[in-house]
Queue: 3 jobs
Job 1
Amino acid sequence: MAIREILTVPDPRLKEVSKPVAGLVTDEHRALMDDMLETMYAAPGIGLAAIQIGVPLRIIVMDLSKEGEERAPRCFVNPEILEMAGENKPYEEGCLSVPDIFDEVERPARCRLRYLDYNGNPVEEWAEDLYAVCIQHEMDHLEGTLFIDYLSRLKRQRAVDKVKKAKLRAIREDAN
Ligand code: GNR
Ligand code: NI
């Protein structure tokens, strides 16, 4: 297992559309999911899409357990949203690829999912609350969409500029 580097804006790879996993879920995919979980826990974050570590495959990991609770890792291969339900609900979102930026995004409150789990077994279930928010945020990554794409152009540009500046500052401090 290894912690991988998380891509941040404006890295063009974050705009790529990720490709479905073809055929079975293999040990190689599981090794990738292990790395993604380790990277997500270290960040720390509650979800991660493969493209955030530069791998353009339709794979997501997530853990919505609270601090002090036992870890509850979840893996999603080729996830699909079958149906959305409920009113749109606002939630203050963040993203490891847009560090230290938080803003409200509205998404449908519930969605029905189909995906393959870590072992390649098919699952169908409803997601709601934070699970619904997070899976929609992660599935957007698979389409090359970031939560800041839902904000005004001004807010989005400010967010990207802030991340760029923070990166430059970190590089400068590293040199000293
Ligand atoms: O860690 C994360 N927290 C979060 C908070 C609100 C809505 C979505 C998220 S996902 C984010 C990790 C991430 O960037 N996943 O792509
Ligand atoms: Ni994200």
Job 2
Amino acid sequence: MDRMFDFLVIGSGIAGLTFSLKVAEQGSVAIVTKKEKVETSTNYAQGGIASVLGPDDSFDLHVRDTLEAGDGLCDEEVVRKVVREGPDLVRELVEWGVEFSRAKRNSKCFDLGQEGGHSRRRIIHAKDMTGREVERVLLERAEEHPGIEIFENHLALDLLTESRVFQAGTTVLKCQNRCYGARVLDSENRIRTFLARSTVLCTGGTGKVYLYTSNPDVATGDGIAMAYRAGATLADMEFVQFHPTCLYHPHAKNFLISEAVRGEGGRLIDGRGRAFMGDYHPLKDLACRDVVARAIDTEMKKSGDDCVYLDISHRDPEFLKRRFPNIYNKCLSLGIDITKDPIPVVPAAHYMCGGIRTDIHGRTDIERLYAIGEAACTGLHGANRLASNSLLEALVFANAAAEDGLGNLESARKEGLPSLPQDVDIPKTGEGGEMILVAHSWDIIRRLMWNYVGIVRSERRLSLAKNHLAQIKLEIDEHTPNIPLNRDLVELKNLLTVAQIIVQCALNRKESRGLHYNLDYPRRDDEHWRRHTFIKKEICI
Ligand code: SIN
């Protein structure tokens, strides 16, 4: 059964929920989310939201820190917008019921945390479970709202677009693509059509493309891959942020040790107990993430050790239990008492700074298609995201896209929606294929990306990765038509698309900048490369 809404929102993290709450008074909203509604990257965000709230802080300082982290590639207009609009949107979250940690019990002042690259304490947080608290409140409100319907365990397969070709005689002047919804695999494995006047991709990032990641299993780059297939422009996909400190333990899956631990005095040490960050940057452990992740990578390669350690045991145990209850309990459950023991850590893929290119309103270059949050590339992060700027970006752009979407709603309603074409390309289902191909391809893509397209890259490794991925694509294209359509297969194809795009963008950029470090081009080259990398599939001519 086809469904029709004013707004189709794909994803139920901070971006999708905030957008939905902002438009739902005036339009009907469907939120489609591929697992349970809380299963989002937002829900796992530990650090917090960077925003100018302290008396010693200023917009100019936050702008300066963001631009510095972005290593020459941020869009300053976007940075100023996000920094300026942040505090009011954070206050709105407080009005909605989000309980951020206070400086003291019953105090009106918030406890502002410190993270790498920030020149002031400006991270508003809910202990070390900020995302969970924000998600809780936004979900509660969305569930209560009569204008919002949430569809759990619904996996978006592809966007529905219509190409309009403008031509003079036989010359094509312009090919305009418009989105009017998506095809979705529902919880009972049926393919359903969700028609919408505006569609919003809030599908998060791509961490699962790497063997080691801080991201939950849902982060398979679905929105980015769908947008690419539909002809949207992607930008800066070579800039993958590796978080320096994920817990290293055979029974810890994807568990982050928040940067806030270093903000509160945690020091990185090697296996012999030597603090090494002084060798790499004057800010030591509070340097930006690209610097810290590369330093750890270098130390591990030098020593041959499997991990380094983060030591915060010099701080008061009661403070640690209060400030980091989630990290304290998780580590304790694995036999690590952070009040006494150093924590074994390794870097892991954490955040995609590139994504679907959007303008200042969150619009992609496909009409009526927006992208918000990690799936989008707004220009805020440039070549390296400043810690805790991502939830902030999601809030600001959810707001901007909601305003824009509402502004167009009346005219979109007058125009109506196209009727579905007869020859809708329903993905083929087959019988008799072997799922082992899917599981195996998942593994090799993730290992390949980790080994060849990780923190430190080279032309040779990138070229090898490109060739291997092309071979995997051939195998998948040849063998998967025999496999019945299923979630793992859909995600595998998205993962492969994203991996190929990351590699291509990394090969295109002939310099090192921010998160992209290439041994064959070890220096930043402003003369040729102070620009974005774009990638787009030509689909209509
Ligand atoms: C962290 O808590 O270290 C993660 C914060 C972020 O990625 O912005």
Job 3
Amino acid sequence: MESSKGNDFFVIKALENGVNVIGLTRGSDTRFHHSEKLDKGEVMIAQFTEHTSAVKVRGKAVIQTSHGEITTTD
Ligand code: TRP
């Protein structure tokens, strides 16, 4: 189980106001459990945890992970 969470952090930098970072629950019941709103230039640094197994990003942002960097588009 530990390996599926890892210790890595990922970084999300908002390129516009109102970017949403949505945490989805781990386990058989996949649902939103947290929504964080970032304004332009704001950065969120987070990990996958026992509660969070997936993250959805809505809006223009740069996302950096150990797998690489991706910039979302409109
Ligand atoms: N309480 C959440 C948790 O421990 C906080 C969190 C961690 C989170 N990583 C996240 C919330 C990613 C949103 C997105 O899982």
